């Protein structure tokens, strides 16, 4: 009986840490950001199916909205430009996903880009993103973030910084 209670408490603790890590990531990797009016900083969440599967059981649509997420869209869906809003990406660093992110940079869909990868990203893929940002004159739009690794559902969120 005590072992079951300890297991349940550990699971709750892990879920809580996962939720805190996701909220931090969605707030540009700082604990809490609000603008001068006390409102959250409005942003767009872009994720792949894997990212969606991680976020969905941990954060409700209301919680996302309360954190300033005005839209949450799949990476490979048709998306219109929203040039005055930052985008937070949460994706696996697959070749297909990197190509689509580079296309977003070339098309200058968003004000700025916060790139968060669910697993480790190779240096060559980071260089692909950096080259796309350079070619699109969007280097300053790729927000610099400190690298961090936080356990989430047996994977890692790795915040990437692409800056020269």
Automatic annotation (TrEMBL):
Keyword Repeat (UniProt): no
One Pfam family this sequence matches: Sec1
Record keywords, A-Z: Protein transport, Transport
One Gene Ontology biological process: vesicle-mediated transport
PANTHER family according to UniProt: VESICLE PROTEIN SORTING-ASSOCIATED (PTHR11679)
Family per record: Belongs to the STXBP/unc-18/SEC1 family.
Name the record gives this protein: Sec1 family domain containing 1
Organism expressing this protein natively: Pongo abelii
């Amino acid at each position: 009986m005590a072992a079951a209670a300890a297991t349940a408490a550990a699971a709750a603790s892990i879920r809580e840490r996962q939720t805190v890590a996701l909220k931090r990531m969605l707030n540009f990797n700082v604990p809490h950001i609000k603008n001068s009016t006390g409102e959250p900083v409005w942003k767009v969440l872009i994720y792949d199916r894997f990212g969606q599967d991680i976020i969905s059981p941990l954060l409700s649509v209301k919680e996302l909205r309360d954190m300033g997420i005005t839209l949450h869209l799949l990476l490979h869906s048709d998306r219109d430009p929203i040039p005055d809003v930052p985008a937070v990406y949460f994706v696996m660093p697959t070749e297909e996903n990197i190509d689509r992110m580079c296309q977003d940079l070339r098309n200058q869909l968003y004000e700025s880009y916060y790139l968060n990868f669910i697993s480790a990203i190779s240096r060559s893929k980071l260089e692909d993103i950096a080259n796309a940002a350079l070619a699109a004159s969007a280097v300053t739009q790729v927000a610099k973030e400190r690298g961090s690794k936080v356990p989430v559902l047996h994977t890692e969120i790795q915040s990437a910084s692409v800056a020269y």
